[in-house]
Amino acid sequence: MDIYKLSDEIPVSKKTGDADDVLKITSMKQGVKNANRVNIFVNGKYSFSLDVSQVVDLKIKVGNEITEAELSEYKRQSEYGKLYQKTLEWAMLRPRSVKETREYLYRKLRMSSSGRSSHPSSRGSSLSPRSDCGLPSEDTSKFSSESASRSSEEDSKLPFEIVSRLVEKGYVDDSAFAKWYVDNRFVKKGVSMKRLKMELLKKGISQKIIEEVLNARDDEEEIMKIIAKKRAKYDDEKLIQYLCRQGFPFELANEKVRSYGKD
Predict the structure, then answer these.
(1) Number of domains in the chain
(2) Residue 137 half-sphere exposure toward CB, CA atoms < 13 A
(3) Which of 114, 137, 116 has the alpha carbon at shortest distance from 125?
(4) 94 and 123 inside one domain
(5) Tens of pLDDT, residues 87-111
(6) Which residues in the chain land under pLDDT 50?
(7) Which of 94, 149, 157, 159 could form a Cys-Cys staple with 105, CB 3.0–4.6 A?
(8) pTM for the full model?
(9) Which domain covers residue 104, as residue numbers?
């Protein structure tokens, strides 16, 4: 089981004051759908869930009294854990680059934010307390804006934290992705090194890694694959033009097309 790298340990505080103001972890129950997650109840009500390893790392126990700030951080770690697990499962399907993993996380967060904004409870303008003139009160509007800003800022950190952890654990690796991509891209059809370079650059792979993985590639071998498949369809001039559009050098295309079948 993977152990998540979480933020600095959150100290458990003992609150004083009125009993109604105290936030206490009153129970912890194993998740029904996911036995690896633990549902945490605060003051008798479900509050958030965490991975088992997160519970251990954060030293969460029944009876702990926590602050509002600690509760907020635990909920953030809950979102981190769920998103990390989804991304890990996605990354295990095939090699992934850092850039596409980050983009995947941003898409997930946008979908999550869209779902929250469409929920009736998130529509402050229609459900918030109203002033005498029928408009949302100034205080409520300001609170909603500040809350949305904080939520957006916290969400924006998650992709970087999760990607960093996945890279550290070796689940996301630009070199492994680039090698996989080159080995599997147009294996039978053929593809030019120029096109591969452009595609890898778009996927966020560094020039150094690209040079390393393309070191064993041979444009001559690749161009012959394409000529063999396209020879019957094009005459010499059109085939040369086609090969140049695919990223092969003109000199190489011209030489191989005109000599094809003459050996």
Answers:
(1) 3
(2) 9
(3) 137
(4) yes
(5) 999 999 999 999 999 999 999 888 8
(6) 1-19, 119-150
(7) 159
(8) 0.65
(9) 69-172
